[in-house]
Amino acid sequence: MDIKDRILVVEDDKSIRNFFRTILEANNYDVIMADTGAEAYSMITSQCPDVVILDLGLPDMDGIKILKSVREWSSMPIIVVSARTHERDKVEALDLGADDYITKPFGTSELLARIRNAIRHVRASYLTPEGMQTGIFRSGGMVIDYDKHRVYIDGADANLTQNEYRLVSLLGRYAGKVLTYDFIIKEIWGPNMKTDNRILRVNMANIRRKIEKNPAQPRYIFTEVGVGYRIVDPD
Ligand code: CA
Questions:
Q1: What is the distance in A from the centroid of ligand 1 to the CA of 29?
Q2: How far does residue 19's CA lie from ligand 1's centre (Å)?
């Protein structure tokens, strides 16, 4: 008997709930449902889901409230799925600790990929303490060698500077997750750095010149406009 990952879907819309149940059960997940924030709270604490899929517009509260309070005691993966498409809403959810943000409507394969990534990421973080990443990240022609502190493109050293390397390796460590500008700046330049996206944009432009064939159409590091950056999924 195999062990299934348990997914809690917090969603009040009946047709979307049915969609989630059908898709997730077909992909061998154990699915539990909550249609209010209060119910979600009690299921999170009593059922210990492996992943929470969280709608923000709930009948009794804003899903953001659940995100905030769970993050006070747990790093369980939480994927926000919302009809709110404004950048501000994405940034808020990600900065409050959401692992990912999916905008409705969304495709099945996108949803499943995000769930796999969230689970993989949290498992990897159990194994390696933050900042102590070792081994190799590989996607297509790009290799991040965490031991040598080098990035290779099609076998050739990309010659990144120290900060450029730290930026790429940070994205690699959180593959599958959008990192907000604020988070990246604090990780790379420290908590006292003023949140100024310009320094980050300049660094990213330099990185792209070194690692992308066509920096205007990146294959490895993607911009989430107004939100932050995401690295390509590993092979
Ligand atoms: Ca809703």
A1: 22
A2: 14
